[in-house]
Write a structure and sequence with these properties.
With 143 residues, this protein is of the alpha+beta class. The chain has five helices and seven strands. The protein starts with a helix and ends with a helix.
Length: 143
Amino acid sequence: MENSKTLSQTGNFTQEQLEAALFYAFDVFADAQCEFFPMGKTAEQMYDSQTKEVYLSGDKIQLGVKKNELAESTIELLKIINPSIDIGDKKLIMNYEGVPIEIRIIKKHYRVLDRLDNIDFAYETFLIPTPFDAFLRMSAFMN
């Protein structure tokens, strides 16, 4: 247990902790019937895992959701599913067993988000924007 405490204090989590948080977010958004996609370091690591032995690492899970997916009823459902969710103007923040899950709300239209393809990661299928290289270059600037 001491190792887990040290990891939390440094802000870096184990692969297992990050995957558990990712799958928790997957379940929350599936229950709310809300489409989302990985972003940032999370997206890059998930994509790279298709061809290399790459695992999740870092200090949080990064996801994105299009603003038009967040109807008022969806937001209310997210609050019911996860009462501690922090819903802001630019992002949603959840926490799973100490791991922050940051979901950026994408308000503008980006063509790279028009086509989401399937990507298998561990035992689930996630949506990921394509072409991925263009998405990755643009994702830091998306709002």
